[in-house]
Amino acid sequence: MAFVKGLMCRECGREYPAEALNVCDYCFGPLEVVYDYATISDVISRERISQGPLSIWRYQDLLPANGDDPVDIMAGYTPLIKARNLGKSLGLRNLYIKNDSVNPSFSFKDRVVSVAATKAVEFEFDTLACASTGNLACSVAAHAARAGIRAVVFIPWDLERGKVIGAAIYGPTMVSVEGTYDEVNRLCSEVADNYPWAFVNINMRPYYAEGSKTLGYEVAGQLGWRIPDHVVIPSASGAMFTKIWKGFNELACLGLLDGVDASSFGPDQNTVHHPAVTTKMHMAQAEGCAPIVTAWANGQPHVSPVRPNTIAKSLAIGNPADGIYAIRVLKESGGSAYAVPEADVVDGIKLLAETEGIFTETAGGVTVSALKNLADSGAIKPDELTVVYITGNGLKTQEAVEDVVNPLSIKPSMGAFEDVISQRIAVGGR
């Protein structure tokens, strides 16, 4: 069951029932889920979690939808890998990769959509919809297929082909919009006012966003119920960034972290900061779309929208809905924010592939490049426990790295092979 009391405006504190709502009628602030943590604390335990399914739904007590019969394509429970080779190249001896690119639709979006889709079925919606930079469209279409309901996905016209095909294969109604993601999102807000559909990142957003908390839960559990000294996270809207932080603090307040005493959540569950949560939160954005990083660098509490112009299309949200809250997390955690030069994005993809055998999309290239900057600058010390989040699969953005294809071309003879291989070895190639 879901231990949800209702919704609350993050700005003015007004309370709302647990319905398909996302914006306060009075101040237009975002609505967030309110949990009955007193009851949760009575039932939850590490043992109870370990006995759950090998998906995000092992954390059903901390999610805002009914986990007894979820819309589940087995999202989550993804590997946490000791990155020895990448760590060696960067001078980091305690580096881990949370590889969320192996989710069923090949991105972390399966976590948030599984929660939103389950809640949509609870509300008896017959259509699941979204505005997407690509990965979300794939996940929404997949979960709608699993739930046996209709999917309508809206995408920018210039989306990478791999993501278009990755969504289309599930049979949704796809709408390609001649504009940026932010223009797609504005259109979808109008559509949501006129069609009785469950838009996962609009009217279902309070529930949807909570799925990202599981990225925090899993890392803590995989580290022996500890949390890292540092995490490096790619960011578009800022929601995942804030929810991973929330996940760490929930575990601490519930006394689930090793050696940490439980404490009260206080009057505002979404701003609680347990003193044992000392993880420094580092944000990575691409230079061509870095509104949160820019605001942080300029010491501004609010984010000014930008028009995206970046190779990292999954991060191309110029008006991030959770930008101001991400800035607060940066401040509370003592973290940092880095805008990766566009020329470095592909270098980050290649570095991860060549050191750890993980092929990530452009967002991962942004994250690895930001990690390198943090290591080179000394912001992360060699022995500090660091987790870098890889959130999407490189097969979706092959266009970005097409120049790596340069095979040795030979006649079908041993002599021809030995000629070219000796030349390659002589110049230090592989």
Tell me what you see in this structure.
The protein is of the alpha/beta class and 430 residues long. The protein has a domain at 80-106 and 209-404: Rossmann fold. 37% of the residues lie in helices and 14% in strands. It has helices spanning 37-43, 46-50, 84-90, 109-122, 135-147, 161-168, 181-194, 205-210, 213-222, 239-253, 291-297, 323-333, 342-356, 362-377, 414-426, and strands at residues 4-9, 15-16, 31-35, 80-82, 95-99, 127-131, 150-156, 173-177, 198-199, 230-234, 280-286, 336-340, 386-390. Strands 4-5-13-10-11-12 form a 6-stranded mixed β-sheet, with helices on both faces. The protein has a 4-stranded parallel β-sheet with strand order 8-7-6-9. Helix 10 links the parallel strand 10 and strand 11 (280-286). The radius of gyration is 22 Å and the shape is globular. The N and C termini lie far apart (55 Å).
Short précis:
With 430 residues, the protein is of the alpha/beta class. It has a domain of 223 residues: Rossmann fold (3-Layer(aba) Sandwich), CATH 3.40.50.1100.
Into which percentage range does the β-strand content fall? Answer: 5-15%
| Low-pLDDT runs | none
As a whole number of angstroms, the C-alpha radius of gyration is 22 Å
Average pLDDT taken over every residue: 96
Number of helices: 15
Query: What is the 3D shape?
Result: globular
| Estimated structural class | alpha/beta
Task: List strands and helices in order, with pairings.
Blueprint: E1 4-9, E2 15-16, E3 31-35, H1 37-43, H2 46-50, E4 80-82, H3 84-90, E5 95-99, H4 109-122, E6 127-131, H5 135-147, E7 150-156, H6 161-168, E8 173-177, H7 181-194, E9 198-199, H8 205-210, H9 213-222, E10 230-234, H10 239-253, E11 280-286, H11 291-297, H12 323-333, E12 336-340, H13 342-356, H14 362-377, E13 386-390, H15 414-426
Parallel strand pairs: 5-13, 6-7, 6-9, 7-8, 10-11, 10-13, 11-12
Antiparallel strand pairs: 1-2, 1-3, 4-5
